[in-house]
Amino acid sequence: MKKFLPHILTLTLLLAINLTADAQCKGFAKKLCKLELTGYIHDGNYHAAILTEGEEAELYKTFYSGQNYRLAICGSETLSAIEFQVVDAYKNVLFDNRQHNMTETWDFMLESSQQLKIVVKVPVSAQKSEYPNSGCVAIMFGFQEN
Amino acid sequence: MRNYYTTLRFAGLIILSGILMLGNACKSGKKGQEGKEVGIEDFLTEEDIFDDIDKAKKIFYSLPSPLETAMLLKSAGVSYNEEVLNDLANVEKYSTNKSKALNLGIYTTDLSFACLFDQAQTSLAYMDATKKLATEMGISDAIDEETMKRLEQNLNKRDVVMDIISETFLNSSSYLKENDQQDVAAMVLVGGWIEGLYIGTQMVGSQPIEGNKLVDRIAEQKLSFSIVERMLQDNIKNARGEENRDIVELINELHATKAAFEKIEVQTSSVKIDENDTADVAVLKSQTKINVTPEAFKELQAAVQSLRNNFVQ
Questions:
Q1: pLDDT value of residue A14
Q2: What domains appear along chain A, each with residue ranges and CATH number?
């Protein structure tokens, strides 16, 4: 058992570091990304994860008519600007931030309620490194009281 | 700092390798035993938004939060009625993980509903109930004494109270998701969403169905119901790969509501967007056809009432 002790201690330490990364992702969403919703009320939902360059994520949500929404998608400074698209059930791309200077937010309202899909991609950095970069990506929604 | 997360990922791999090595070291001659693969059951076959889901990607399902649910009810013309909220005395009854999670969602929707109608003292009482449940679930940081103090000092400022509700809900859901309790986080959301459906259907009462804005808003929840199903199916196994009995039970409990929603038709057209419109807020133009008969609505009312009463007991 003694021979495993150094391994166990190392693993415990590394696990603690990993938990810190999660906590920092939470902090990033709460303290930085939420600021992008200024003027809107954050709905309170938490959608954030650590993604690596080249990775994609999708979010499905129903948006309701008559509500003003703001979508904010932010990536931590270790990542290049995050790409995102908003797509309807018929696969029409309604918004692509690559055509809007890589903006992190999009304000919209719907004439009728719809299920929409948000597709998020972490682009591969032009700078070459030994390992692909990873970082937090948060997707947040705000709305306005009518 | 630039490669900080990469280092952490690498550290994660080392942890995984270490655990596997330790696990192998502890095994005695069970090499070659294969793990059992259990596929996710498909429950939707028709063409819809979920058609081309790529399981390799990180997938998020988002339900209306308690705050958004309350807002949707208010904008559909609901008036305030405290009698429909879950009795505060019930908070003492919840002893299982499932009942605590569902009722944390339920009380948060009630709290949001009271807040939107400027019910200061009721909001405070419901925040207290959510604090009690969150603490019992090990999320003591979600609503701390400082938050309660801030709430008391700003009870008459709706914007501040809404911000506090949003923040406390974010604290709870982020804590649960980052501590491998996505299943619990899903139950909290489902509880809150069902409470909104319950308040809405109760408020319709015996009013006429036709041309009723609130009835349409409730029928549109069919779109979110498919997200509820997906979210629960995704959590049918816990982080250790074991079947999650609470989630399986909840899926079964939702059968009557699913059957009722199936009798309601909600059809949406594709979305058009005016590319030349330079307004700050984009308008997504589309049409939704809703067909709900009085019988179908009554069935939904009854199913939701029974489900919610079962949750709060």
A1: 43
A2: 2-143 (2.60.120.380)
Written as six digits, the tokens of B161 are 């109270």
For B79-212, where are the alpha helices, taking DSSP H only?
Answer: 97-116, 120-136, 145-153, 158-178, 182-204
Q: Indicate yes or no: CB of B3 within 8 angstroms of CB of A23.
A: no
Residue in A with minimal Cα distance to B164: A44
Asked if A139 and A48 touch (Cβ cutoff 8 Å), the reply is yes
Distance from B262 to chain A by nearest Cα, in Å?
17
Count of all residues that appear for chain B in the document:
313
Mean of pLDDT values over A109-119: 96
CA distance B129 to B108: 9
Number of domains into which chain B is organized: 1
Residue type, A33: C
Q: Would you call A75 helix, strand, or coil by DSSP? A: strand
Closest-approach residue (CA) in chain B for A71: B281
Environment class of B212 (CB within 10 Å of its CB; exposed 0-12, middle 13-18, buried 19+): middle
**Which of A17, A18, A113, A120 has the highest number of chain B CBs within 10 A, making it the mutation to test binding with B?**
A113
B259: in domain = yes
pLDDT band at A137 (very low <50, low <70, confident <90, very high): very high
Instruction: Compute, in degrees rounded to 10, the torsion defined by CA atoms B191, B107, B185, A106.
Output: 90
Other Cβ atoms within 10 Å of B303 Cβ, number: 20
Q: Which residues contact B301 (CB under 8 A, 6 or more apart)?
A: B201, B202, B204
CA distances from A77 to A121, A136, B7, B307 (A): 15, 9, 15, 45
In the sheet that holds A114-121, the strands lie side by side as: A93-96, A83-87, A114-121, A56-63, B58-62
Q: Which residues contact B281 (CB under 8 A, 6 or more apart)?
A: A68, A107, A108, A109
Here the ipTM equals 0.86
Which structural domain, as residue segments, surrounds residue B157? 56-312
> In the prediction, which pLDDT does A125 show?
84
How crowded is residue B290: how many other Cβ atoms within 10 Å of its Cβ? 18
Residues paired with A140 in a beta bridge = A72
DSSP conformation letters of B200-237: HHHHHTTS-STT-HHHHHHHTHHHHHHHHHHHHHHTSB
Residue B222: CB atoms within 10 Å:
20
In this predicted model, which residue has the larger pLDDT, B259 or B21?
A: B259
Nearest CA-CA distance, residue A36 and chain B, Å: 14
Which residue, among B265, B155, B158, B266, has the nearest Cα to A62 in the 3D structure? Answer: B266
